[in-house]
């Protein structure tokens, strides 16, 4: 047991000249548990200017805060971590198990990685999916053909992990909360969201460019709001176009010619500028999710004939996962997700079909 401020005011008492009352020097707030070697080191005269009272108090406080946090996490604070990793335009980012665990802990939860399946937990690794590099090259037609094959293969990988790893845990009750981390192409993130059970409480995480981190920052304010506008009437058929100008802008002339005459909806920020980091706080993602839900409910009411939505997304990755989660295949129109390949938007992946 070591004293932070020495037990007496004698000059030989380490840090004893501190103004702390002698009556308080044997109290718990002034004591630390150290091994004998550390005790000797911090009390040595040569290290007095390094192991100061302020530094030792800070170290003690940091340790006590960590223990208080860990011991305060009851069973209801557990979450099953799901990580999906791919590349976007040939680039990948760091999404380690430790990064996910740190982000989850910041939300006052502790991570369960379902060790019975893999030492890495529920992990969807798309890097070795056949055709990954082929979708970003060639002309628009060849890119579209290549992308269809790639996405079909990648969707099978996602289906396999969800069906054989995540779903059994949900059915047995061992998975009661899910935390999702994804870095992959937007259509696959939408597809992943659609394969997650919307009845299971789920947190979706976003990688923040400025901090190079997956941790949601401390909330400040209500976040960005979003709106849906009908910008083109079109025929009252069974198809419509949805343009999502959230983190970027898709201009009208970029809409494929075969979709130009369809009725059109645009989702965009209502009180913020369109930018890549628009989802800088979790509150903004929650408000975007609410906008998605209201929009789909609106279609149920005013566009009952719709059978397919052609979705052109310019959204952060967490928003893509969220879009897939709120979509219900038995209630909402099927979604065809487009991706910009070789300078043009091409259809890549259908979301909303019954799982095989």
What does this structure look like?
The chain is an alpha/beta fold and about 350 residues long. It has three domains: about 1-70, no CATH class; about 75-205, Rossmann fold, CATH 3.40.50; about 225-350, Rossmann fold. It is built from seven helices and 13 strands. Strands 8-10-9-11-12-13 form a six-stranded mixed beta sheet.
Record the SSE blueprint.
Elements: E1 2-3, E2 31-32, H1 36-43, H2 53-71, E3 78-85, H3 97-106, E4 110-112, E5 122-125, H4 140-172, E6 178-183, H5 186-195, E7 202-204, E8 226-232, E9 239-245, E10 263-269, H6 282-302, E11 308-314, H7 317-326, E12 334-341, E13 344-351
Parallel strand pairs: 3-4, 3-5, 3-6, 6-7, 9-10, 9-11, 11-12
Antiparallel strand pairs: 1-2, 8-10, 12-13
Helix pairs in contact: 4-5, 5-7, 6-7
Looking at this protein, list some descriptive labels.
single chain; 356 residues; alpha/beta; Rossmann fold; 3 domains; six-stranded mixed beta sheet; five-stranded parallel beta sheet; 7 helices; 31% helix; elongated
């Amino acid at each position: 047991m070591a004293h932070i401020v020495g037990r007496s005011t004698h000059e030989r008492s380490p840090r004893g000249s501190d103004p702390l009352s002698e009556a308080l020097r044997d109290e718990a707030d002034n004591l630390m548990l150290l091994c004998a070697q550390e005790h000797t080191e911090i009390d040595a005269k040569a290290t007095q200017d390094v192991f100061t009272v302020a530094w030792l108090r800070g170290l003690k406080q940091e340790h006590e805060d960590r223990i208080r946090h860990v011991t305060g996490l009851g069973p209801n604070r557990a979450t099953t971590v799901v990580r999906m990793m791919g590349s976007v335009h040939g680039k990948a980012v760091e999404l380690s198990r430790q990064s996910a665990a740190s982000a989850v802990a910041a939300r006052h939860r502790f991570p369960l990685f379902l060790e019975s399946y893999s030492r890495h937990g529920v992990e969807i690794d798309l890097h070795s999916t056949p055709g990954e590099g082929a979708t970003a090259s060639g002309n628009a037609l060849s890119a579209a053909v290549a992308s269809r094959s790639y996405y079909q293969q990648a969707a099978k990988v996602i289906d396999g992990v969800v069906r054989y790893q995540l779903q059994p845990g949900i059915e047995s009750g061992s998975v009661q909360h899910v935390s999702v981390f994804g870095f992959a192409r937007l259509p696959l993130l939408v597809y992943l969201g659609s394969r997650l059970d919307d009845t299971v409480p789920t947190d979706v995480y976003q990688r923040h460019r400025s901090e190079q981190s997956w941790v949601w920052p401390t909330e400040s304010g209500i976040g960005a709001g979003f709106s849906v506008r009908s910008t083109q009437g079109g025929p009252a058929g069974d198809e419509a176009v949805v343009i999502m100008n959230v983190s970027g802008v898709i201009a009208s002339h970029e809409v494929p010619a075969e979709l130009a005459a369809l009725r059109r909806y645009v989702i965009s920020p209502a009180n913020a500028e369109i930018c890549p980091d628009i989802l800088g706080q979790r509150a903004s993602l929650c408000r975007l999710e609410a906008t998605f839900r209201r929009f789909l409910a609106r279609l149920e009411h005013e566009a009952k004939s719709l059978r397919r939505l052609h979705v052109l997304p310019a959204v952060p990755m967490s928003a893509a996962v969220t879009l897939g989660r709120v979509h219900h295949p038995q209630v909402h129109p099927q979604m065809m997700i487009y991706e910009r390949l070789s300078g043009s938007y091409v259809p890549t992946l259908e979301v909303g079909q019954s799982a095989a």
